[in-house]
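Before the break, one more example. Copy the sequence into your notebook; we will annotate it together after we see the structure.
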Amino acid sequence: MRKTKASTVALGGMMAALAVTIMCLGGLIPIATFVCPIMCMLLLRFVMNTCGVRIGWAWYGAVAILSLLLGPDKEAAAVFAALGYYPMLKPRLDRMKLGMVLKLALFNVVILAMYWVLIHLLGMDRIAAEYEELGTAMTMVTLLLGNLTFFMTDLVLGKQPRRRK
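Here is what the structure looks like once it is written out:
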């Protein structure tokens, strides 16, 4: 099959529909709040490799907006909106000397800012009550586990797909 502009846009649109479906299914299982955005990041990696970075940015924007509008789990949609672009930023960060430090700093700043916006600006008191109930120590453990998950996601995104012979 020939690769044309129309075919890459169509493939990007189909992958965006799949990603929005994944984000909408995230409301069914509590842990999916963090799993669905990661799955969508992996889809973005596929879209970038197949369709290019330009379609990747359009794809990310469409999926982020549609997830925020249609997704039942607004926290998962916010996580994707805050970090979903990471697969496109990763190659540049990998070329820097302090790449891993910058990646973890980016993750922590973005996640903390996202939760601050969700709690203080959007009034999602349910999230604040959830973390208040956990206590400071468990909230720090949750942040540490988030960093570990981000590190593992970074490793998975760094793997190159095998080519068929």
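The two ends are 18 Å apart (CA to CA). Residues 125-158 form the longest helix (34 residues). Try to locate both features in your own notes.
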